[in-house]
Amino acid sequence: DIQMTQSPSTLSASVGDRVTITCRASQSISTWLAWYQQKPGKAPKLLIYKASNLENEFPSRFSGSGSGTEFTLTISSLQPDDFATYYCQQYDSYSPTFGGGTKVEIK
Amino acid sequence: QLQLQESGPGQVKPSETLSLTCTVSGGSISSSSYYWGWIRQPPGKGLEWIGSIYYSGNTYYNPSLKSRVTISVDTSKNQISLKLNSVTAADTAVYYCARSPLVVIAAFYPDHWGQGTLVTVSS
Protein backbone atom coordinates (compact mmCIF):
# COMPACT_ATOMS: atom_id res chain seq x y z
CA ASP A 1 0.00 0.00 0.00
CA ILE A 2 1.05 3.59 -0.59
CA GLN A 3 1.32 5.38 2.76
CA MET A 4 0.15 8.98 3.03
CA THR A 5 1.61 11.17 5.78
CA GLN A 6 0.03 14.50 6.62
CA SER A 7 1.54 17.26 8.73
CA PRO A 8 0.78 18.80 11.03
CA SER A 9 -1.91 16.66 12.64
CA THR A 10 -3.34 19.75 14.35
CA LEU A 11 -2.96 23.37 13.38
CA SER A 12 -4.08 26.37 15.43
CA ALA A 13 -4.65 29.50 13.39
CA SER A 14 -6.56 32.77 13.38
CA VAL A 15 -9.02 34.17 10.90
CA GLY A 16 -7.07 35.78 8.09
CA ASP A 17 -3.99 33.56 8.51
CA ARG A 18 -2.34 31.80 5.59
CA VAL A 19 -2.41 28.08 6.29
CA THR A 20 -0.41 25.30 4.63
CA ILE A 21 -0.93 21.56 5.10
CA THR A 22 1.56 19.06 3.73
CA CYS A 23 0.92 15.53 2.47
CA ARG A 24 3.71 13.11 1.56
CA ALA A 25 3.33 9.84 -0.30
CA SER A 26 5.58 6.84 0.31
CA GLN A 27 6.13 6.53 -3.45
CA SER A 28 5.43 8.67 -6.46
CA ILE A 29 1.75 9.13 -7.27
CA SER A 30 2.16 11.68 -10.08
CA THR A 31 -0.71 14.09 -9.43
CA TRP A 32 -3.30 11.49 -8.43
CA LEU A 33 -4.10 13.24 -5.18
CA ALA A 34 -7.31 14.57 -3.69
CA TRP A 35 -8.05 16.74 -0.67
CA TYR A 36 -11.22 16.58 1.41
CA GLN A 37 -12.75 18.87 4.02
CA GLN A 38 -14.72 17.28 6.86
CA LYS A 39 -16.73 19.05 9.53
CA PRO A 40 -17.87 17.32 12.74
CA GLY A 41 -20.70 14.86 12.20
CA LYS A 42 -20.67 15.33 8.44
CA ALA A 43 -19.39 13.38 5.48
CA PRO A 44 -16.17 14.60 3.87
CA LYS A 45 -16.45 16.87 0.86
CA LEU A 46 -14.13 16.72 -2.14
CA LEU A 47 -12.13 19.94 -2.15
CA ILE A 48 -9.35 19.39 -4.70
CA TYR A 49 -8.64 16.61 -7.20
CA LYS A 50 -5.65 15.79 -9.38
CA ALA A 51 -3.52 17.75 -6.93
CA SER A 52 -4.57 21.23 -7.98
CA ASN A 53 -8.09 21.25 -9.41
CA LEU A 54 -10.53 23.06 -7.15
CA GLU A 55 -14.10 21.81 -6.86
CA ASN A 56 -16.65 24.43 -7.92
CA GLU A 57 -18.28 24.60 -4.49
CA PHE A 58 -15.15 25.96 -2.84
CA PRO A 59 -13.73 29.49 -3.00
CA SER A 60 -10.45 30.39 -4.63
CA ARG A 61 -8.69 30.95 -1.30
CA PHE A 62 -8.14 27.18 -1.37
CA SER A 63 -5.37 25.88 -3.59
CA GLY A 64 -3.43 22.68 -4.04
CA SER A 65 -0.02 21.99 -5.51
CA GLY A 66 2.60 19.30 -5.84
CA SER A 67 3.45 16.17 -7.75
CA GLY A 68 5.33 12.96 -7.17
CA THR A 69 5.55 12.49 -3.42
CA GLU A 70 5.01 15.94 -1.91
CA PHE A 71 1.81 17.96 -1.95
CA THR A 72 0.41 21.01 -0.21
CA LEU A 73 -3.01 22.43 0.51
CA THR A 74 -3.01 26.18 1.10
CA ILE A 75 -5.74 28.40 2.46
CA SER A 76 -4.68 31.94 1.61
CA SER A 77 -6.80 33.72 4.20
CA LEU A 78 -8.50 31.48 6.75
CA GLN A 79 -12.21 32.14 7.22
CA PRO A 80 -14.51 30.99 10.06
CA ASP A 81 -16.14 28.39 7.79
CA ASP A 82 -12.75 26.77 7.11
CA PHE A 83 -12.22 25.36 10.59
CA ALA A 84 -12.46 21.65 9.88
CA THR A 85 -10.37 18.53 9.38
CA TYR A 86 -8.61 18.08 6.05
CA TYR A 87 -7.58 14.76 4.53
CA CYS A 88 -5.40 13.97 1.56
CA GLN A 89 -5.96 10.79 -0.45
CA GLN A 90 -3.98 9.12 -3.19
CA TYR A 91 -5.77 7.36 -6.02
CA ASP A 92 -2.78 6.29 -8.05
CA SER A 93 -2.98 2.64 -7.05
CA TYR A 94 -5.66 -0.02 -7.04
CA SER A 95 -5.82 0.55 -3.26
CA PRO A 96 -6.52 4.20 -2.48
CA THR A 97 -5.29 5.44 0.88
CA PHE A 98 -5.89 8.49 3.03
CA GLY A 99 -3.62 10.61 5.14
CA GLY A 100 -4.26 10.77 8.87
CA GLY A 101 -5.92 14.18 8.69
CA THR A 102 -5.12 17.73 9.80
CA LYS A 103 -7.47 19.44 12.19
CA VAL A 104 -7.52 23.21 11.72
CA GLU A 105 -8.52 24.81 15.01
CA ILE A 106 -9.25 28.34 16.11
CA LYS A 107 -6.27 29.94 17.83
CA GLN B 1 -29.42 16.29 -7.45
CA LEU B 2 -27.48 13.13 -6.70
CA GLN B 3 -28.17 11.57 -3.31
CA LEU B 4 -26.69 8.47 -1.72
CA GLN B 5 -28.42 6.93 1.29
CA GLU B 6 -26.95 4.19 3.42
CA SER B 7 -29.24 1.80 5.28
CA GLY B 8 -28.83 -1.21 7.51
CA PRO B 9 -28.58 -2.34 11.12
CA GLY B 10 -26.90 0.03 13.52
CA GLN B 11 -25.59 -2.79 15.67
CA VAL B 12 -24.02 -6.11 14.77
CA LYS B 13 -22.78 -8.85 17.10
CA PRO B 14 -19.13 -9.95 17.05
CA SER B 15 -18.36 -12.73 14.54
CA GLU B 16 -21.53 -11.95 12.56
CA THR B 17 -21.91 -10.25 9.17
CA LEU B 18 -22.35 -6.53 8.69
CA SER B 19 -24.71 -5.78 5.80
CA LEU B 20 -25.40 -2.33 4.38
CA THR B 21 -27.19 -1.02 1.31
CA CYS B 22 -26.65 2.26 -0.50
CA THR B 23 -29.56 3.58 -2.56
CA VAL B 24 -28.71 6.12 -5.23
CA SER B 25 -31.24 8.71 -6.37
CA GLY B 26 -30.93 11.56 -8.83
CA GLY B 27 -28.53 9.59 -11.00
CA SER B 28 -28.01 6.16 -12.52
CA ILE B 29 -25.70 3.62 -10.97
CA SER B 30 -25.36 2.17 -14.49
CA SER B 31 -23.50 5.22 -15.75
CA SER B 32 -20.24 4.30 -17.44
CA SER B 33 -18.60 7.41 -15.96
CA TYR B 34 -18.43 6.43 -12.30
CA TYR B 35 -17.30 3.93 -9.73
CA TRP B 36 -19.27 3.37 -6.53
CA GLY B 37 -17.84 2.29 -3.23
CA TRP B 38 -17.62 2.21 0.54
CA ILE B 39 -15.40 4.09 2.96
CA ARG B 40 -15.45 3.85 6.74
CA GLN B 41 -14.35 6.01 9.64
CA PRO B 42 -13.97 4.67 13.20
CA PRO B 43 -15.16 7.16 15.83
CA GLY B 44 -12.62 9.95 16.21
CA LYS B 45 -10.28 8.44 13.61
CA GLY B 46 -9.40 8.76 9.95
CA LEU B 47 -10.85 7.43 6.71
CA GLU B 48 -10.36 3.95 5.26
CA TRP B 49 -11.35 2.84 1.78
CA ILE B 50 -13.15 -0.51 1.90
CA GLY B 51 -13.76 -1.21 -1.76
CA SER B 52 -15.26 -0.10 -5.05
CA ILE B 53 -17.45 -1.48 -7.81
CA TYR B 54 -18.29 -0.63 -11.40
CA TYR B 55 -21.83 -1.07 -12.68
CA SER B 56 -20.66 -4.08 -14.70
CA GLY B 57 -19.73 -5.79 -11.44
CA ASN B 58 -15.94 -5.35 -11.48
CA THR B 59 -14.79 -4.98 -7.89
CA TYR B 60 -11.69 -3.69 -6.10
CA TYR B 61 -11.08 -4.31 -2.42
CA ASN B 62 -8.77 -3.03 0.30
CA PRO B 63 -6.15 -5.79 0.69
CA SER B 64 -6.45 -5.64 4.47
CA LEU B 65 -10.20 -6.41 4.28
CA LYS B 66 -10.39 -8.43 1.08
CA SER B 67 -10.89 -11.81 2.75
CA ARG B 68 -13.99 -10.53 4.58
CA VAL B 69 -15.61 -8.10 2.14
CA THR B 70 -18.12 -8.45 -0.67
CA ILE B 71 -19.49 -5.48 -2.59
CA SER B 72 -22.27 -6.01 -5.10
CA VAL B 73 -24.42 -3.90 -7.41
CA ASP B 74 -28.12 -4.13 -8.27
CA THR B 75 -28.70 -1.90 -11.27
CA SER B 76 -32.46 -2.61 -11.27
CA LYS B 77 -32.74 -1.07 -7.80
CA ASN B 78 -29.98 1.53 -8.29
CA GLN B 79 -28.21 0.14 -5.23
CA ILE B 80 -24.87 -1.15 -4.10
CA SER B 81 -24.39 -3.37 -1.08
CA LEU B 82 -21.64 -4.14 1.40
CA LYS B 83 -21.12 -7.32 3.35
CA LEU B 84 -18.34 -7.61 5.91
CA ASN B 85 -17.94 -11.00 7.56
CA SER B 86 -16.62 -12.01 10.97
CA VAL B 87 -16.81 -8.54 12.45
CA THR B 88 -15.05 -7.45 15.63
CA ALA B 89 -15.12 -4.28 17.70
CA ALA B 90 -12.46 -2.88 15.36
CA ASP B 91 -15.09 -2.74 12.63
CA THR B 92 -17.16 -0.22 14.60
CA ALA B 93 -17.29 2.85 12.37
CA VAL B 94 -19.37 5.26 10.35
CA TYR B 95 -19.77 3.63 6.95
CA TYR B 96 -20.07 5.92 3.94
CA CYS B 97 -21.31 5.12 0.48
CA ALA B 98 -19.63 7.21 -2.22
CA ARG B 99 -19.33 7.87 -5.94
CA SER B 100 -16.10 8.47 -7.81
CA PRO B 101 -15.54 9.77 -11.31
CA LEU B 102 -13.90 7.21 -13.56
CA VAL B 103 -10.55 8.66 -14.62
CA VAL B 104 -8.38 5.55 -14.87
CA ILE B 105 -9.11 1.94 -14.05
CA ALA B 106 -9.74 1.44 -10.33
CA ALA B 107 -8.86 5.02 -9.35
CA PHE B 108 -11.31 6.05 -6.65
CA TYR B 109 -11.71 9.56 -5.28
CA PRO B 110 -15.24 10.30 -4.13
CA ASP B 111 -16.95 13.43 -5.37
CA HIS B 112 -20.27 12.57 -3.73
CA TRP B 113 -20.81 10.93 -0.36
CA GLY B 114 -23.77 9.62 1.56
CA GLN B 115 -24.41 11.00 5.02
CA GLY B 116 -22.94 7.88 6.59
CA THR B 117 -24.35 5.34 9.01
CA LEU B 118 -22.82 4.32 12.34
CA VAL B 119 -22.44 0.59 12.82
CA THR B 120 -21.47 -0.60 16.27
CA VAL B 121 -20.12 -4.10 16.80
CA SER B 122 -21.19 -5.21 20.23
CA SER B 123 -22.88 -8.12 21.91
Task: Give an account of the 3D structure.
The complex is a heterodimer of chains A (107) and B (123). With 107 residues, chain A is mainly β. In chain A, 0% of the residues lie in helices and 50% in strands. Chain A contains no helices and 11 strands. In chain A, strands 2, 4, 5, 6, 9, 10 and 11 form a 7-stranded mixed sheet that branches. In chain A, strands 1-3-8-7 form a 4-stranded antiparallel sheet, with no helix packed on it. In chain A, a hairpin with a 3-residue loop joins strand 5 and strand 6. The radius of gyration of chain A is 13 Å and the shape is globular. In chain A, 37% of the residues are buried. The model of chain A has no long low-confidence stretch (mean pLDDT 97). By secondary structure, chain B is mainly β. Chain B contains no helices and 11 strands. In chain B, the strands form 2 sheets. In chain B, strands 2, 4, 5, 6, 9, 10 and 11 form a 7-stranded mixed sheet that branches. Chain B has a 4-stranded antiparallel sheet with strand order 1-3-8-7, with no helix packed on it. Chain B is globular. Chain B starts with a strand and ends with a strand. The mean pLDDT of chain B is 97. Chains A and B meet through strand 5 and strand 10 of A and loops of B.
SSE blueprint and pairings:
The complex is a heterodimer of chains A (107) and B (123).
Chain A: E1 4-7, E2 10-13, E3 19-25, E4 33-38, E5 45-49, E6 53-54, E7 62-67, E8 70-75, E9 85-90, E10 97-98, E11 102-106
Chain B: E1 3-7, E2 11-12, E3 18-25, E4 34-41, E5 48-53, E6 59-61, E7 69-74, E8 79-84, E9 93-101, E10 112-113, E11 117-121
Parallel strand pairs in B: 2-11
Antiparallel strand pairs in B: 1-3, 3-8, 4-5, 4-9, 5-6, 7-8, 9-10, 9-11
